[in-house]
Specification:
By secondary structure, the protein is mainly α. It has one domain. Helices cover about 80% and strands about 0% of the residues. It has 9 helices and no strands. The chain starts with 5 loop residues before the first helix and ends with a helix.
Length: about 220
């Protein structure tokens, strides 16, 4: 398997996210209207389609068509994230129960308790992000939401890439996406329309390319 180059992935990701830019802006409008609930599922469905077409070898952003299918794909992506995130929230909550109880008995332990919960949340969040980076495109490739729990298959694909390379790609990409999202949040409305979709599409493209490299 050809080794993935981080620089090449990022370059391809930014090129893809603006090809054509008008479609990226349309995605930004959907995110802007996400307070209406329904548009967010279209936005997620479009992201789903971008990852799928990247795996299939398509080099430009997809058209906005088959809105019904796009909505269903958005629901699939939403549920996939949900069934992974909810157990994580429960785990963090369960970790916090004994710590909070101890803090009640010893008020001086409150700071240590909150610090432990915060640290646990960060560690679990990072591990979840690293897993979902591969699990989401795998789910899209297979077409079954439950496949996000195919741990052995997903970890095997990560092994093919190499743990070091995979972690480096994930961390750099996620930090870059976070920075773009942060910048977007500092520019009300315009940032959501012009910058948020770049972050979303960059992530989708790189996820698709990374997964595609594991297909024999």
């Amino acid at each position: 398997m050809k080794r993935l180059e981080l620089g090449g992935l990022l370059s391809d990701g930014f090129r893809y996210a603006t090809n054509p830019y008008s479609r990226a802006i349309a995605l930004g409008v959907l995110y802007l209207l996400s307070f209406l609930i329904v548009p967010i599922f279209f936005a997620l469905g479009y992201t789903y389609r971008c990852i799928k077409e990247t795996i299939d070898g398509v080099e430009k952003l997809p058209e906005y068509r088959d809105w019904g299918g796009m909505f269903v794909d958005g629901l699939k992506l939403f549920v996939a994230y949900l069934i992974i995130v909810i157990p994580i929230i429960v785990i963090v909550f369960l970790i916090g129960i004994p710590l909070r109880f101890g803090a009640i008995l010893n008020p001086y332990a409150m700071i240590m308790s909150m610090s432990s919960i915060y640290a646990a949340s960060i560690i679990i969040g990072i591990l979840t992000g690293l897993y979902l980076f591969m699990a989401i495109p795998y789910m899209i490739y297979v077409g079954k939401v439950g496949s996000v729990f195919s741990f052995s298959e997903i970890l095997e694909r990560i092994r093919k890439i190499g743990y070091g390379d995979y972690f480096a790609i994930c961390i750099v990409t996620l930090i870059l996406v976070w920075l773009l999202t942060l910048i977007s949040s500092l520019i009300p409305i315009i940032g959501v329309i012009l910058i948020t979709p770049i972050a979303v599409l960059l992530l989708a493209r790189i996820q698709g390319l990374v997964f595609k490299s594991t297909i024999s």
